[in-house]
Design a protein that fits this description.
This protein is α/β, with parallel strands linked by helices. It has one domain: Alpha-Beta Barrel (TIM Barrel), CATH 3.20.20.140. The chain has eight helices and four strands. It has a four-stranded parallel sheet with strand order 1-2-3-4. The longest helix is centred in the C-terminal third of the chain and has 16 residues. 29% of the residues are buried. The mean pLDDT is 87.
Length: 186
């Protein structure tokens, strides 16, 4: 689903365009809902395709209400794998308590990124609760900009956080290996 939605948010992250063409022809914003507040026909088609083919659909940067609609429709029609894309980011704004309920659905995966926490969009308590208690968490960095920490630094920071939060070896393996494997059906 779209990550360029047209909704305004002033990011604390400095970004560089990945290609000069984007200056002349920027990505057009898209939403998963129409003016009437319902999921668009295109969104419904994508969900049906995800039901019928071995795909994982990500919710993109949908807002909280749109994410709830996507989950409801995905469950209704039997989509086997739906991933909530950075649900704690300011554009979506879902908290650990709601994610704990959502994550109890076996076909719904919750992405928790280090970046959301590093940028201060998610407080330590919420970050800890997601990593400690929310089912079906897929832990990632989302650190794709060249100005951000590299993979080895992220792995080191993550290990320190996991130690500080008292995460078991089993929980670490769930978030970083087993849940992603299950989501990808490998």
């Amino acid at each position: 689903m779209p990550t360029v939605t047209g909704r305004t948010h002033t990011s604390t992250l400095a970004r560089n365009l990945s290609h000069p063409l984007l200056r002349e022809k920027p990505i057009k914003p898209a939403r998963v809902t129409a003016q009437n507040g319902r999921l668009t026909p295109q969104t419904l088609d994508i969900l049906k395709m995800a039901r019928d083919y071995p795909l994982v659909i990500s919710t993109g940067h949908a807002d909280a209400d749109e994410v709830r609609m996507l989950i409801e429709e995905a469950l209704r029609i039997g989509v086997p794998r739906l991933m909530l894309n950075q649900p704690a980011n300011p554009l979506t704004g879902l908290k650990a308590a709601e994610l704990e309920v959502i994550g109890s659905e076996p076909s719904v995966y919750i992405e928790q990124t280090a970046l959301t926490y590093l940028l201060g969009y998610q407080d330590r308590q919420d970050f800890t609760k997601v990593l400690s208690h929310v089912p079906n968490v897929v832990y990632s960095s989302d650190l794709g900009q060249t100005s951000q920490v590299d993979v080895h630094e992220w792995l080191s920071m993550s290990g320190q956080w996991f130690d500080a939060f008292g995460l078991s070896c089993e929980r670490r393996a769930e978030m970083t290996l087993l849940n992603p494997q299950r989501m990808l059906a490998i």
